[in-house]
From TrEMBL, chain A:
Positions of the Heme-copper oxidase subunit III family profile domain: 4-261
Species classification: Eukaryota, Metazoa, Chordata, Craniata, Vertebrata
Protein name: Cytochrome c oxidase subunit 3
Subcellular location per the Swiss-Prot or TrEMBL entry: Mitochondrion inner membrane
Catalytic activity, as annotated: 4 Fe(II)-[cytochrome c] + O2 + 8 H(+)(in) = 4 Fe(III)-[cytochrome c] + 2 H2O + 4 H(+)(out)
Origin: domain of life: Eukaryota
Species per Swiss-Prot/TrEMBL record: Chelydra serpentina (Snapping turtle)
Main location: mitochondrion
Example GO BP: mitochondrial electron transport, cytochrome c to oxygen
GO molecular function, one term: cytochrome-c oxidase activity
TrEMBL record, chain B:
SUPFAM superfamilies for this protein: Rubredoxin-like (SSF57802)
InterPro entries (UniProt xref): Cyt_c_oxidase_su5b, Cyt_c_oxidase_su5b_sf
GO BP term, example: mitochondrial electron transport, cytochrome c to oxygen
Protein name, UniProt field: Cytochrome c oxidase subunit 5B, mitochondrial
One Pfam family cited in the UniProt record for this chain: COX5B
Top-level taxonomic group: Eukaryota
Binding site for Zn(2+): 78, 80, 100, 103
Keywords for this protein: Acetylation, Membrane, Metal-binding, Mitochondrion, Mitochondrion inner membrane, Transit peptide, Zinc
Modified residues (N6-acetyllysine): 57, 73, 108
Length: 261, 116
């Protein structure tokens, strides 16, 4: 039986990259179909296949790492680089929307009345629900760090409790934001104010949902004893992502909610 | 379908189960690592590195590779790791030791005279 003489992971052939590409094709063409021909069939199919791809691909990674032991130190290092680079790309994604906000708000055009917030827009009070949201996310940053320490100190019950608390705080944030969206006195169609507000906070909210999902997966894995006290990169990646989401919110709060009012 | 339902029940039961054999409830890598990860871990504990994970400690500053030369400079070709096909070529000058720009190995020229 031939054995490798290096510590890297030569992955087995997998269908998920292909199904992922198929999902991307269906979603993009589905979006066009939805816009122009009033049909959501392709879009829904694309979303379904994307979700299935994500579930099965990541399930396979868990199998390869936790159950088959392929995640040696060099492999883990590569995964760390990957996550850091991905988060960096997301930072640049948000930088674009902040650029749009500052471009429009630092020199408000005559159409807006030369003011920011534009004439006719009543912005949300930054010291009401948005401040609560800030406290919720900051607290969740503390609880996720608490969970990490529990993991490193082999304290199972504290890890599970702290991780659960983090997820609950994340869900609370999402619920509060949903309510805010519903109750807001302006819409996305209300000049560039509405556009920048809802696109920036909307993408942030999507990332909160993604981050919460990642944390829920970590919670399930922790309950099923996947993590050890020294090898738990999935958890660390989720925690990094969660801190990134928190930091983006802080920038959103200071720029759009506070300064922008 | 049924197997998925059973798996959910298993997860919930894992929550209610009393803590596992490990103190605190979270296994150490020593207990749970498997496959190649376990093999690498066990070899490292014995001081071995069969999968070449660590950098080879060759030619540090205190023990440079001594390169004889009859003139004041000589070309050195460093094959940083075993079986590398990309040889790192550079001029080695008399005097201060130099390092390979790729792997950092130290080289020092030892001037020689042509016998006459």
């Amino acid at each position: 039986m031939a054995h490798q003489t290096h510590a890297y992971h030569m992955v087995d052939p997998s269908p998920w990259p292909l199904t992922g590409a198929a999902a991307a094709l269906l979603m993009t063409s589905g979006l066009a179909m939805w816009f122009h021909y009033n049909s959501m069939l392709l879009l829904t199919l694309g979303l379904l296949i994307m979700l299935l791809t994500m579930f099965q691909w990541w399930r396979d990674i868990v199998r390869e790492g936790t159950f088959q032991g392929h995640h040696t130190p060099p492999v883990q290092k590569g995964l760390r680089y990957g996550m850091i680079l991905f988060i960096t790309s997301e930072v640049f994604f948000f930088i674009g929307f902040f650029w749009a906000f500052y471009h429009s708000s630092l020199a408000p055009t005559p159409e807006l009345g030369g003011y920011w917030p534009p004439t006719g827009i009543t912005p949300l009070n930054p010291f009401e629900v948005p401040l609560l949201n800030t406290a919720v996310l900051l607290a969740s940053g503390v609880t996720v760090t608490w969970a990490h320490h529990g993991l490193m100190e082999t304290n199972r019950s504290q890890t599970i409790q702290a991780l659960t608390l983090t997820i609950l705080l994340g869900l609370y944030f999402t619920a509060l934001q949903t309510m805010e969206y519903y109750e807001a006195p302006f819409t996305i169609a209300d000049s560039v104010y509405g556009s920048t507000f809802f696109v920036a906070t909307g993408f942030h909210g999507l990332h909160v949902i993604i981050g919460s999902t990642f944390l829920i997966v970590c919670l399930l894995r922790q309950i099923k004893f996947h993590f050890t006290s020294t090898h738990h990169f999935g958890f660390e990646a989720a925690a990094w992502y969660w801190h990134f989401v928190d930091v983006v919110w802080l920038f959103l709060y200071v720029s759009i909610y506070w300064w922008g009012s | 379908m049924a197997s998925r339902l059973l798996r959910v029940c298993g997860t919930l039961r894992a929550l209610r189960r009393p803590p596992c054999p490990w103190p605190g409830g979270i296994p150490s890598n020593e207990k749970q690592a498997t496959g190649l990860e376990r093999k690498v871990m066990q070899d490292m504990e014995k001081g071995q590195d069969p999968y070449n994970i660590l950098q080879p400690k060759r030619y540090p500053k205190e023990d440079p590779n001594l390169v004889p030369s009859i003139s004041s400079k000589r070309i050195v070709g460093c094959i940083c790791e075993e079986d590398n096909s990309c040889v790192i070529w550079f001029w080695l000058h008399k005097g201060e030791p130099q390092r390979c720009p790729s792997c950092g190995a130290h080289y020092k020229m030892v001037p020689h005279h042509l016998p006459h």
